Amino acid sequence: MPEFDHLIVTISDGVLTVVLNRPEVHNAFNAKVLRELTAVFTIADQRSDVRVVVLEGAGRSFCAGADLGWMSAMIHYTEDENVRDSEAMATMFRMLNDCPKPTIAKVGGAALGGGVGIVAAVDMTICSTEAVFALSEVRLGLVPAVISPYVLRRIGPGAARRYFLTGERFGAEVALRLGLVSEVVSSDQLDSATQVVISSVLRGGPVALTAAKQLIQNVPYLSSSEEDGYTTRVIAGLRVGQEGQEGMSAFLNKKPARWVVPTGGQKP
């Protein structure tokens, strides 16, 4: 595992944990953070010992979006330089969204701007009742352009009309109602609630989990004439595959499949 300046990255029992580690600036992005996150998501994709990715923030905040110092430098960028900068951010979010491993955000504080983008791009978000969210770019004369594909798919155009345009902050319960987060718990339950979700994910077959993510991403964009052919090929391929054969056999014989990691982290 390479060393990172702004991230704490660990792998244990199939879980790759990524801690945004700039608490002095509320874990805000800069160009280096984007490069490091992109590198981590590449590692998650390539390593077979990574089964799930968990993102969290050090200190009181999850992620406050763009770093003020970085934004100050952007004022002097040309349009072409801004395009290159934005492309780097778009690449990071695309890699997070398309990561073949399940992704979970654990949010205990503020998620603003690009922080909301992370929440929208992961598969599941568990947040505490203390979490707050905002898409406040319009108050800076900007818009949440790069993260908009992920946020719009999460909360829909109707909610975006309010929160993109007002820039107002909203709390955890509103985020849950909008579908931005999956679960809201008290701060003292955040770690345990996240672990419950991780444990549930780890009961799924690695190949099946990736196939499930592809199903979610692809099916909504298929025409009615394409749906049957695509979905029947997916399930048929999994049924005859090694993992599907093992999983069905284990179920019928009332035994855990080899990929199931019981409490304590040791494989059976």
Provide a descriptive summary of the structure in words.
The protein has a 6-stranded mixed β-sheet with strand order 1-2-3-4-6-9, with helices on both faces. A 3-stranded mixed β-sheet has the order 5-7-8. It has 2 domains: 7-201, Alpha-Beta Complex (2-enoyl-CoA Hydratase, Chain A, domain 1); 206-252. The longest helix has 19 residues, at 79-97. With 268 residues, it is an alpha/beta fold. It is built from 10 helices and 9 strands. It is globular, with a radius of gyration of 19 Å.
- What integer value in Å does the Rg equal? 19 Å
Number of helices: 10
For the record, the count of structural domains works out to: 2
Q: Which strand-content bin applies to the residues?
A: 5-15%
Please describe the biggest sheet, giving its number of strands, its sense, and whether it closes into a barrel.
6 strands, mixed
Average pLDDT across residues? 93
Class from secondary-structure proportions: alpha/beta
Give a short overview:
This protein is of the alpha/beta class and 268 residues long. The protein has helices spanning 31-46, 68-74, 79-97, 114-121, 148-166, 172-178, 190-201, 206-218, 224-240, 242-252; strands at residues 7-12, 15-20, 52-57, 103-107, 110-112, 124-128, 132-134, 169-171, 183-185. The protein folds into two domains: 7-201, 2-enoyl-CoA Hydratase, Chain A, domain 1; 206-252.
